[in-house]
Design goal:
546 residues; alpha+beta; single chain; Immunoglobulin-like
Length: 546
């Protein structure tokens, strides 16, 4: 929501008052009971043993995940094949948990009710971890905007949280459609950077890894610090937790960010040795710019905007991403020109100057670099022919809508908000189909406008495309008997794996972006791989078999 200065608390109080008044005047804000027995979606069951789920501290609860597999119905009383164990859980969000009756939750899988040791598990086929999010789409009545943004970003070759739609039972009460998704976290299969330990206070170990975010202060723990170039831009530590960091580690990453902003503001934009590209992975800034502008995300660039830095020995540049919080995106906000399909989100400081946090000046300045501008146009042209072709986007939307055809009816029986204004809807569809059609229509207009801005002058023959070839990675690495090779390139790919002596030990063809590789018969040691796409482009890397 918009966060106004200088009285953000009064703004929040006003929002809550409007919500309460709307309910008193007849808004169907109270949830309705649903006779829920089965679903084509996985079913998540939470049992808090009578406890209320607060924002903080977390409580211990039980969780079961019922997932009988593709094409098989899941019944609420089926055996929980997906997970049957203990968690700690809390509500998530800042204003959303006050304004919206449908709550989001953060949860961690643990060993037991008396042993809160975190345990890594695989939920619904995701790589093993212990931190998860049950996100509650509420003002987004398509239920899919987050999933759409994250899936598109992954297809562009970037990590974004994996998402599965589920239906939630809380203490046997039906709560609607939720998104089970990965929490943004340092992990080989999530944000794959080095672990920063308390003893890493010198040398290369000090230089990474850090996950930071640009965000509102509300709803965040820890102390924000301000950009030295704009005191209305707030930075926060995401990993490690600020309380776990040594003073020298905080000083290092804050100074690095200051040097980046200084080079961007005062340096030669085309100086690759000492300018902003010495500090920043420009290709990642391109991709985040494209996704935030495609969605015209009203909070884009200024809140829930993550970026990270690995050790200098592993690249050491600031990398933008992963994406987060797209529920007020793709035409689903009614302020700061967000419903319009024309105009730039990165210029929102000029459109809504009284809203904070501000958007950093980064992207606006980078666009003054002819190389960055050329790479942006090239990347857009490349994506428009593949991942961001409207047929591809509509295909994803139709797939989601078909998957949710049955469950969305129950969701809107539980939360009767179709045809009702919910903050901050610019469009109020009477049916789910109307909400889906509005999303498609808005995207068509937005893509057409971006084409008019970025297609003219797009020239990929001058080296600009060198910044946009997606990276190839292996996870986990070191690997066990099963590993995945991720290379977000369209079409069939040919994989070869070589032992230390250069002998081919494994070949495989696959059209998948995430290629499963069976390494059961490989002895422990180092291996090398080469993967080529249909046009002959090649990526290489190393695998450590443990």
């Amino acid at each position: 929501m918009p966060y106004k200065t200088p009285t953000p608390n009064l703004a929040l109080v006003k929002c809550i008052f409007i919500r309460i008044l709307a309910c008193l005047l007849g808004c169907p804000c109270l949830a309705q009971p649903v006779n829920f027995q089965s679903s084509n979606l996985p079913i998540v069951k939470l049992n808090t043993n009578g406890q209320f789920i607060p924002d903080n501290p977390r409580i211990v609860a039980q969780m079961q995940v019922i997932d009988n597999g593709p094409g098989v119905l899941n019944y609420r009383n089926d055996a929980p094949q997906g997970y049957d164990g203990w968690i700690t859980i809390e509500t998530r969000g800042s204003t959303s948990q006050i304004l919206y009756p449908k709550k989001s939750y953060g949860l961690t899988t643990i060993a037991g009710p008396a042993d809160t040791t975190q345990i890594n598990v695989s939920l619904l086929g995701f790589p093993e971890e212990n931190d998860w999010v049950l996100y509650a789409p509420y003002p987004d009545k398509t239920l899919i905007r987050n999933a759409l943004a994250f899936d598109l970003f992954r297809k562009m070759g970037r990590y974004a949280s994996r998402v599965r739609f589920v239906e939630l039972l809380l203490n046997e009460e039906y709560m609607g459609v939720y998104c089970l998704q990965e929490k943004i976290k340092r992990d080989a299969a999530r944000v794959n950077i080095s672990r920063l330990r308390a003893e890493d206070i010198t040398g290369d170990q000090l230089t990474g890894g850090y996950i930071l975010k640009i965000d509102k202060i509300t709803g965040n723990s820890g102390q924000a610090w301000l950009s030295t170039k704009d005191p209305q831009v707030f930075f926060l530590h995401h990993y490690p937790d600020e309380a776990d960091m040594q003073p020298v580690q905080k000083t290092y990453i804050r100074n690095f960010l200051h040097h980046f902003e200084t080079a961007l503001q005062t340096g030669n934009l085309q100086d690759t040795a000492n300018g902003y590209r010495h500090y920043a992975d420009a290709a990642s800034f391109l991709d985040v710019l494209i996704m935030q502008e495609l969605g015209r995300t009203v909070d884009g660039f200024r809140s829930s905007t993550f970026f990270y830095k690995d050790r200098d020995s592993k690249g050491g540049k600031l990398i933008m991403g992963p994406l987060w919080d797209f529920n007020l995106s793709y035409g689903n906000a009614n302020y700061c020109d967000a419903p319009q399909t024309s105009g730039w989100q990165y210029l929102q400081n000029d459109i809504c100057p009284n809203y904070t946090p501000h958007i950093p000046f980064w992207w606006q300045t980078m666009l003054g670099d002819p190389w960055f501008d050329g790479a942006l146009k090239c990347r857009w042209a490349q994506l428009r022919a593949s991942t961001l072709h409207l047929d591809s986007i509509y295909g994803l939307i139709d797939t989601y809508a078909a998957e949710l055809n049955e469950s969305q009816q129950r969701n809107f029986q539980r939360w009767p908000i179709l045809g009702v204004y919910v903050d901050w809807n610019p469009f109020i569809g009477l049916t789910y189909s109307q909400e889906i059609n509005y999303l498609k229509t808005w995207l068509s207009g937005r893509v057409a406008w971006l084409d008019s801005q970025w297609m003219p002058g797009a020239d990929c023959s001058v080296g600009a495309d060198e910044a946009v070839l997606p990276d190839c990675r292996v996870f986990p690495n070191p690997a066990g008997a099963q590993l995945w090779l991720e290379w977000p390139v369209a079409g069939e790919k040919y994989l070869q794996v070589f032992d230390a002596g250069g002998q081919i030990i494994h070949t495989q063809r696959s059209p998948e972006i995430n290629i499963p590789v069976n390494a059961t018969l490989w002895p422990a040691g180092f291996y090398f791989f080469s993967v080529q796409d249909e046009s002959g482009r090649e990526a290489r890397g190393k695998i450590l078999r443990k």
